[in-house]
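Sequence design from tokenized structure. All designs in this work follow the same two-part layout: the structure record, then the generated sequence. An example of the structure record is given first.
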């Protein structure tokens, strides 16, 4: 009995719909024939703006003035479909008491050496509290003379996930900077790694600009949310062809000493985690010149602002500054968004002081996997000599361990929080200097050994 009842109701509903559909079709045909006379194509294929107003609705189409036949064809088809959809939607609705249903379109054009982008925005008002906005973008690669989409710009199948995490960081930063208080979960769901969530982007001089329409990542009143990701953070995420503006940053070298004199030496990289600290770090910096040494600091983002001058001094001397995350987190326990947050917050804090990008990561506890490497987009530097300096706090013991285990290409783990660790490192340098060793940063070691570091690997030593 229940089944029959439902079935009957469905048929009735379908009958009504069919009737309505026939009426709409008849109106549609007459409107279309009207439109074709109103919407004149100019010689470039550009259509003049179109306005249609009845007692019930207003249609205002701002046809894009873009000089590219492919983009125009796609745009015209999209706008036509959207307009039909709007008219179908409102055909079932009663006249409004006050005001009208509205369909208004706008567009933006972006262009650089390679890509011409057309972005269409459709505002629809079909009742309720606010407009509904639909966004659609089309991109044309001028060199290859073909239409392209976001997936054509991405370097590999992991890139979208990386872009999603980076966007999360920048959207939350935008929220914090403007006191908007976006809901983290809404932001996350609006940025899931689906290419539809990255519909509107522009390659501009300073980086990749991504625009999220109202309601995608935040409440309606926040409007559209626009973020800018600098090109140097998109290496390995966006194809190199589209990152040409950032090429010079890639090869920037953080030191001003001549490392050629070390080419015949055995190399050791001293690395110091968990700092900076006032006493330990500065004592080390005071003594490095004695051994013609430079070292690598994997600093905690949460400490950087408290020891700005120390960090700046370390960097200016030509030491390498890497990241040890913001709050010494076990990255294996975090989701992708939190991983990005730990990494980006640290890198931003460092860059504020050194004005240079941080490319090297030492994950706390050495905990890392392929996903973290991909999300961080940095070089993962582990160690092969663990001094256990935090446990013994004995300078001689630390120095002995280093000297006994030293070998060419070694990476030594120490902590500059402890004066005993710094003393132990300096004692070891004193002794190893006469054995033909040079003390270099991770970056210098890779250069001297002609190793092109790979972001998909872990480095325990560099050979
Ligand atoms: Zn640590």
């Amino acid at each position: 009995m229940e089944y029959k009842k439902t079935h009957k109701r469905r048929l009735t509903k379908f009958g009504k719909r069919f009737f309505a559909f026939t009426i709409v079709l008849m109106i549609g045909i007459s409107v279309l024939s009207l439109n074709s006379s109103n919407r004149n194509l100019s010689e470039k294929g550009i259509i003049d703006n179109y306005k249609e107003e009845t007692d019930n609705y207003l249609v205002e189409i701002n046809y894009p003035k873009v000089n590219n036949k492919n983009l125009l064809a796609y745009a015209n088809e999209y706008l036509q479909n959207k307009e039909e959809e709007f008219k179908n939607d409102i055909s079932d609705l009663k006249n409004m008491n006050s005001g009208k249903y509205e369909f208004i379109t706008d567009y933006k054009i972006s262009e650089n050496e390679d890509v011409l982008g057309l972005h269409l925005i459709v505002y629809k008002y079909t009742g309720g509290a606010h407009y509904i906005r639909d966004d659609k973008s089309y991109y044309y690669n001028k060199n290859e003379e073909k239409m392209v989409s976001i997936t054509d710009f991405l370097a590999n199948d992991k890139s979208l996930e990386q872009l999603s995490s980076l966007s999360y960081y920048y959207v939350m930063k935008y929220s914090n900077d403007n006191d908007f208080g976006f809901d983290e979960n809404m932001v996350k769901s609006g940025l899931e790694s689906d290419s539809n969530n990255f519909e509107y982007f522009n390659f501009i001089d300073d980086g990749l600009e991504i625009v999220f329409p109202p309601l995608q990542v935040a409440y309606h009143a926040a409007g559209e949310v626009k973020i800018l990701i600098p090109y140097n953070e998109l290496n390995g995420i966006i194809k190199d062809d589209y990152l040409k503006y950032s090429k010079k940053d890639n090869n920037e070298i953080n030191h001003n000493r001549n490392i050629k004199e070390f080419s015949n030496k055995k190399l050791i990289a001293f690395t110091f985690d968990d700092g900076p600290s006032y006493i330990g770090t500065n004592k080390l910096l005071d003594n490095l010149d004695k051994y013609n040494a430079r070292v690598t600091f994997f600093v905690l983002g949460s400490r950087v602002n408290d020891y700005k001058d120390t960090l700046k001094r370390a960097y200016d001397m030509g030491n390498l500054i890497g990241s040890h995350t913001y709050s010494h987190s076990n990255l294996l326990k975090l989701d992708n968004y939190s991983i990005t947050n730990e990494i980006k917050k640290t890198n931003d804090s460092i860059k504020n002081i050194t004005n240079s990008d941080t490319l090297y990561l030492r994950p706390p506890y050495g905990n890392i996997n392929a996903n973290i490497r991909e999300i961080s987009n940095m070089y993962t530097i582990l160690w092969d000599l663990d001094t256990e300096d935090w446990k013994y706090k004995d300078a001689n013991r630390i120095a002995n361990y280093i000297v006994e285990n030293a070998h060419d290409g070694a990476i030594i783990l120490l902590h500059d929080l402890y004066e005993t660790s710094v003393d132990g490192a300096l004692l070891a340098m004193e002794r190893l200097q006469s054995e033909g060793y040079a003390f270099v940063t991770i970056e210098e070691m890779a250069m001297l050994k002609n190793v092109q570091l790979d972001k998909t690997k872990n480095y325990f030593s560099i050979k």
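The chain has three domains: 30-143, 152-242, 250-459. We note this feature because it recurs in several other targets discussed in the main text.
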